[in-house]
Amino acid sequence: METDSKLTAVRLRAPRAAAIAGIVFSVLLIASIVLLRRSVPADPMEAGAWLSTSAKSVTLSLNLVPFAGIAFLWFMGVLRDRLGVREDPFFATVFLGSGLLFLALLFMSAAVIGGIIIAFTAAPDGLLTSSTFRFGRAVTYEVMNVYAYRMAAVFMVATSTLALRTEIIARWIAYLGYALALVLMFSGRNVDTIILVFPLWVLLVSVYILITNFRKA
To answer: Per-residue pLDDT for 7 more than 50?
Structure first.
């Protein structure tokens, strides 16, 4: 009986840990995106006036990204542990690969923006007129608005498929994931707040898992 109680406690803690990690990731990434979008114009050809007026806000936004990434890794790890032997090898591979690629692209974008800020601090007059600044700004824009969005969409599709097969979340949340993934996949690159769809969906999944876990407890 004591062994059964310990196993039950472990099974309850696993989804709860995934839910908490997902909530932390969502809140941090939403805060980072909102700060960044309010400080940096969406136009990749912008002259760089934000470096003089909003550098502190952008730096704060970038400092949130690593912690959001750590929480997302924890979310993926605990969710895979929750799936256990029921996970489909194909979709589990897509789930893991797309999640890691999304994080890599997110970190790359944050690193480029951070490098631009450091370079501006060292030589404010020379940076804004250089091709290096325009290249770095354009790369960040393309990586986030084209590639990171699509990897987030693939992650949502893989997660929703695994959820339907294993019933770890409600079916309507999985179907909503499919619909939002289509929005991310085929949205234009000029819709600069569309990336909020991804952390909001992860937040919904995490809150649902947490609520159902407490009900079972």
So the answer is: no
Domain count, the chain: 1
CA angle, 102 as apex, 96 and 108 as ends, to 5°?
135
Q: Which H helix or E strand runs over 5?
A: helix 2-39
Phi, psi (deg, nearest 5) at residue 126: -80, -25
44 within 8 A of 138, measured Cβ to Cβ: yes
Predicted confidence (pLDDT) at residue 9 exceeds the cutoff of 60: no
What contacts 24+ positions apart, CB below 8 Å, involve 8-17? Answer: 12/213, 12/216, 12/217, 14/78, 14/81, 14/82, 15/78, 15/82, 15/168, 15/209, 15/210, 15/212, 15/213, 16/209, 16/210, 16/213, 16/214, 17/74, 17/78
Helical segments of 123-170, H only: 124-127, 131-142, 149-166
Domain that holds residue 86: 2-216
3-state secondary structure of 44: coil
Could you tell me how far CA 3 lies from the centroid of its own chain? 37
How far apart (Å, rounded) are the C-alpha atoms in residues 152 and 102?
6
d(CA 91, CA 81): 14
With tokens 């256990």, the residue in question is 84
pLDDT digits (tens, 9 = 90+) for 153-193: 999 999 999 888 887 788 999 999 999 999 888 876 666 67
First to last CA, the chain: 17
